[in-house]
């Protein structure tokens, strides 16, 4: 069957069309440019932009896939987590489409979508795998079984900021443009990753509960102290070196813990997903260390890492094929939906 997916949880409006694990087409619109001067996503601005572009994204995705609206068999929509006002637009649009077409509607988890995105590129998941999800709102290590039907087990989460949030905050400290991740990556290219000695939070000193937990706020504070000291002493801020050193510290902690989690649980497949998985240094270090540890690494192409509609169609397609019951039309958006399963309602 053909599943259409709609994503509107943040500032990207995305529609994807998937049939039996194959991406047929997609369309993406972003209101990122409208948020640049505020240094972060403004919820009301994002919601209005979703409303304005959701119909054209639908048309574009159908055209891209060469699929007629009547051929769509099921609709999946992100119902959480994310910005409430943004989620509401997508949920309302998807309900209208489902009602007009008389098709089943599935409310799915945004982060399960990030994980499912990888299956569009690398095929079905093995029986067991571990996922490192690193994005604007999440930094977690997850134990996965069957993505559509099995519960998702959290091995560890961030105790404070998400990895993407840390990139965005450090970029702001360095007066680099929003969004911070790509800016830091660019600045880091000409920097020395060993120039500034930054901490590796929870990498060596951790309690048993913190074995797979992350913490990035201390790293951000260390960068803030460096910047303040430089300002006070009148020294130039070595932006490229700070960016490279910060990026290296984040990547080191993320990949070390992900590889350890695989080893400890005798899991031989690691997925890295979410916006920060687009980071070139993270991808390089992950490839190197997974090869050394005999772990099969799966990281989707950068455009499948950041928010998009294809990932929601991908998780929708898996859920539909598992034979799950549709969500009906009486659910709402859940801005803080916990990730313990892919189908939310
Ligand atoms: P969530 O998925 O947790 O709800 P989100 O949808 O806002 O959050 P994504 O779109 O998945 O997040 O990811 C956006 C984040 O990824 C931003 O914090 C951004 O800075 C970061 N990011 C994007 N590209 C890169 C990159 N090349 N390097 C590092 N970080 C990046
Ligand atoms: Mg975004
Ligand atoms: Fe996301």
UniProtKB/TrEMBL annotation:
Binds 1 Fe(2+) ion per subunit. The keyword tRNA processing applies. Pfam families: TsaD. Keywords: Acyltransferase, Cytoplasm, Iron, Metal-binding, Transferase, tRNA processing. GO terms for cellular component: cytoplasm. Substrate binds at residues 133-137, 168, 181, 279. InterPro entries: ATPase_NBD (IPR043129), Gcp-like_dom (IPR000905), KAE1/TsaD (IPR017861), Peptidase_M22_CS (IPR017860), TsaD (IPR022450). SUPFAM superfamilies: Actin-like ATPase domain. Its cofactor is Fe(2+). GO terms for biological process: tRNA threonylcarbamoyladenosine modification. Residues 23-313 form the Gcp-like domain. Its EC number is 2.3.1.234. It catalyses: L-threonylcarbamoyladenylate + adenosine(37) in tRNA = N(6)-L-threonylcarbamoyladenosine(37) in tRNA + AMP + H(+). Required for the formation of a threonylcarbamoyl group on adenosine at position 37 (t(6)A37) in tRNAs that read codons beginning with adenine. Is involved in the transfer of the threonylcarbamoyl moiety of threonylcarbamoyl-AMP (TC-AMP) to the N6 group of A37, together with TsaE and TsaB. TsaD likely plays a direct catalytic role in this reaction. Belongs to the KAE1 / TsaD family. This is tRNA N6-adenosine threonylcarbamoyltransferase.
């Amino acid at each position: 069957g053909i599943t259409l997916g709609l994503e509107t949880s943040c500032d990207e409006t995305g529609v994807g069309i998937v049939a039996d694990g194959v991406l047929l087409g997609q369309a993406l619109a972003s209101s990122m440019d409208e948020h640049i001067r505020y240094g972060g996503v403004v919820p009301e601005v994002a919601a209005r932009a979703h409303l304005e572009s959701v119909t054209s994204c639908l048309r574009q995705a159908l055209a891209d896939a060469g699929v007629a609206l009547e051929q769509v068999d099921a609709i999946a929509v992100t119902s959480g987590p994310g910005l409430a006002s943004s989620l509401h637009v997508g949920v309302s649009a998807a309900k209208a489409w489902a009602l007009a077409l008389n098709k089943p509607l599935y409310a799915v988890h945004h982060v399960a979508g990030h994980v499912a995105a990888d299956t569009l590129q690398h095929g079905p998941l093995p029986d067991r795998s571990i996922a490192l999800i690193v994005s604007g709102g999440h930094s977690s290590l997850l134990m996965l079984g069957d993505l559509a039907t099995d519960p998702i087990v959290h091995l560890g989460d961030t105790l404070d900021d998400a990895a993407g949030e840390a990139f965005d905050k450090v970029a702001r400290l360095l007066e680099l443009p929003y969004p911070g991740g790509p800016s830091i990556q660019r600045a880091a290219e000409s920097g020395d990753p060993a120039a500034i000695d930054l901490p590796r939070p929870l990498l060596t000193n951790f309690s048993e509960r913190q074995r797979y937990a992350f913490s990035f706020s201390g790293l951000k504070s260390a960068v803030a102290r460096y910047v303040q000291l430089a300002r006070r002493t009148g020294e130039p801020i070595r932006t490229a070196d700070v960016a490279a050193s910060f990026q290296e510290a984040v990547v080191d902690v993320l990949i070390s813990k992900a590889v350890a989690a695989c080893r400890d649980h005798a899991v031989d497949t690691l997925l890295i997903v979410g916006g920060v998985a687009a980071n070139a240094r993270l991808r390089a270090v992950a490839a190197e260390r997974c090869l050394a540890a005999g772990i099969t690494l799966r990281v989707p192409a950068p455009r499948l890492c950041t928010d998009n509609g294809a990932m929601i169609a991908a998780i929708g397609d898996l859920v539909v094929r598992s034979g799950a019951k549709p969500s009906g039309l009486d659910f709402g958006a859940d801005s803080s939906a916990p990730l313990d399963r892919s189908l939310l309602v």
